[in-house]
Amino acid sequence: MNYKTDTIMIKLIKYVALCSTLVLGISCTDQLRLDERETSFNKDYFTYSRYQLTTSILNVAKSYGKSAIDAPKGQAALYFMDTYSADQIAGFYNKTDANWSYQDVNAYAGTGADGAGQLRTLEAVTKLATTEGNMANVAAADIMKCVVGAYLTEKYGDIPFTEAVQGRAGELFPKFDSQKVVYETMFAMLDKAVAILADPNSKGLPADHDVLFKGDKTKWIKFANSLKFRLMVHSYDAFKKAGKDLGADMQAIAGGTNYMSTVADNAGLTFPGIAEADSWYMQRTWGSGNTFTEQKPTKYLIDQLVALDDPRMYVIFAPVLSPLSSKPTKVDETIKINGFSYVINHYPATAADAAALTAAGRDLNGNVTSVPYVLDAKWFGTPNPTNVQSLYGGTGLAGSNGFYDNRRITGFSNLLAKASDPRLKAVLMEADEMAFLLAEARQKGWISAGTVKGYYDNGIKLSFQRWQIEDGTKPATHIGSDKIVDNFAAYTAKAGVALDGTAADLDKIALQKWLSMLITNQTEAYTDYKRTGKPAFVGKIAQSFGAYTYPQRYMYPLDEASNNKANYDAAVSGLGGKDLPSAKMWILN
Question: Which residues form a coiled coil (predicted)?
């Protein structure tokens, strides 16, 4: 949904920023408890549920979508490597946040323009809307609570949920619900939300305050069912071991039509782009531009895209801007791809330091290998996480954005530098993800509706469509293009893409889902690898660069260990007694 013309967004950001400034004046070591006691919150902030609905949708989506620039998650998914701090996966092992972190915001009692306590605001929606009789607003709030709750439990494990944000009722030290209970609670909340929204007499969701779906209850229902299906896929094996088969519930969704199935169903917000605070995460209109240039795609990602001649590469990435060249002298050329122009500076390799022509990398099994630079490379990713900015002599080249911008390596396209575009969204969930979830569930025999191939091919098509790639006759080259056109049927028929009815189909489903989540949902990509071990090369390569086990979770925040110790200790005992990133949460056992 595009709310670029909606002035609510601008007013809301200013309002949230003002509230944030007021709250930031409080200094404390126990922010959760003091925020819960903040009596002025009711008087100054709680008004009508429709206003809080707008606030909460914005803050939940904006923070969740921020995973697009989350360096540790990007590297854990083997998408990107951070030029500033090298190996980000190790960051899972030496960093403990002070408070709960929902993409840098404390969802329970956080402050800041990126989201002021999403769960607290959603609880306000629930209470206000219930009093008003606007139960459709309650349903929407519960769906968004499940987005946040799922994010937190899949990040940490057991979390406060059923007793969370109940400080005004006297519950200042909430228990940590087991992950099983969190999932069961979310399933019930989503079912209840669907029932409310399906009732033609339910009131609420005014179009001018529902910035996600403009008051369209059918789209909220599809979102709720799709989110529930995502969570059931994540937890199916764990519930099966616990004696409950989720297959019937999954079939009930898959056998119907009330789930995300078109790009129009996607749950995401388009940024207005009028000011820095309401612009796409990587924009270069304001600020230093570091967010745009600090992450470089891995060799392993670019190699997959090149091998498949994947049209998404030409939308998301730019060609190498300063390649080492076979040309005897420096040559500049300007090319256009997808309507954006790029100036390519070819540097003669004969003038480069011989040591710059080769770098150490890993093959897809994690074995050390030498990676020579491909002269006049158009698409070339970084082969390792160390000193990314200096690989192949790429430090400080003319035209670079400072010391850390390596122009010898592929970077993001000029599309991603824009402040606003219909393709650049704060994504919560999209139809292509749902299609791949259905394909996985069907291949594993969890559902009987549809066919694996039907879901899988549709997932690829939907991923292409969300990036505005057109289905048609593929040109000989995308160089000089105003838009990207590819033959969808021909793509799905390629040897590396087409399914063959064997167990290997799961690997192809996982790979295409991994590619489809590029830039849109690194959080889900990280969770997917943890639960499936696919694509297999992600773990093999990631672990080969350090002496550690692939991180399975984030450690609990310091505030809970010190101020909610009894409940924290109980949660840690469920992890084997140690709060470690290598400990496996319930859904992963």
Answer: none
